[in-house]
């Protein structure tokens, strides 16, 4: 018998599964991440120029570590959903938090989401563009 298996003999199955979920061994399920997004001030809605974007707090972004995808209104939440898969240089843990942020912002602004996990975003199939190679 393996040492790790014998060490589990005292743990119940529920505890074992709970611990493994916390440590991410079964990371395919819904996110357990806590959102960091906070509703913006009323003057932060609408078009965001570079100066307004720079003034936003980190908590206004889906990806707060890299300050990507600001969510100051419903249109920006929809944009964050559409562009989620395009954000590069972030870990799966950061994507977990970003998705939790999007869910929280979507609920706040009344944006309906059918996705329940970030792995469902950006996987829509697109018809192949046959005109691209033909000239």
Structure description:
Strand 1 (61-63) and strand 2 (68-70) form a beta hairpin. The chain has 135 residues and is mainly alpha-helical. Residues 1-8, 10-29 and 124-135 have low confidence and may be disordered. The chain has five helices and two strands. It has a domain at 49-121. A two-stranded antiparallel sheet has the order 1-2. It has helices spanning 3-7, 13-22, 50-55, 74-83, 92-109, and strands at 61-63, 68-70. It is globular.
Biggest β-sheet description: 2 strands, antiparallel
Please give the order of strands in the largest beta sheet.
Answer: 1-2
Annotation field: number of helices: 5
Helix amount: 25-40%
List unreliable stretches of 5+ residues. Answer: 1-8, 10-29, 124-135
Task: Based on the model shown, name its key terms.
single chain; 135 residues; mainly alpha; two-stranded antiparallel sheet; 2 strands
List the SSEs and their pairings.
Elements: H1 3-7, H2 13-22, H3 50-55, E1 61-63, E2 68-70, H4 74-83, H5 92-109
Antiparallel strand pairs: 1-2
């Amino acid at each position: 018998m393996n040492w790790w298996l014998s060490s589990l003999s005292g743990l119940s199955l529920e505890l074992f599964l709970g611990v493994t979920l916390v440590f991410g061994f079964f990371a395919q399920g819904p996110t357990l991440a806590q959102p960091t997004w906070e509703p913006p001030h009323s003057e932060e809605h609408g078009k965001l120029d570079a100066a307004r974007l720079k003034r936003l707090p980190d908590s206004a972004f889906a990806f707060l570590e890299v300050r990507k995808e600001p969510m100051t209104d419903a249109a920006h939440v929809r944009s964050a959903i559409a562009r989620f898969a395009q954000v590069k240089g972030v870990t799966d843990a950061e994507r977990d938090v970003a998705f939790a942020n999007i869910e929280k912002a979507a609920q706040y602004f009344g944006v309906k989401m059918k996705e329940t996990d970030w792995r469902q975003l950006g996987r829509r199939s697109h018809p192949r563009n046959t005109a691209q190679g033909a000239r």
